[in-house]
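dude i think i finally got it to work??
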Amino acid sequence: MDEPQDPGAVFDRLERLLAFPVDFPLKIMGRRVDGFAQAIAALVAEHVPDFEPATMELRASSKGGWLSLTVVVRLESRAQLERLYGALAAHPLVRIVL
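look at this
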């Protein structure tokens, strides 16, 4: 089994590949519960003020227990990406952020 990667190393690699500002896609997955999409949209908007929630794509799992949200955000810096990713990963309704 692979060991978890250091988040700093992952962001280092990303920074070498990206030229900021950049439109960056994120996939956020969690349990399909009332208010999940709205909570995530609000959290993203806190970190990316020009984020438009209407552009968020939602997809339920085949059995309906999970919800996958895809957002594309305009990021100005690595620091902004790290803050957004950290906030999403720490949210109690979020299971995975890709």
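Residues 78-90 form the longest helix (13 residues).
im so relieved honestly
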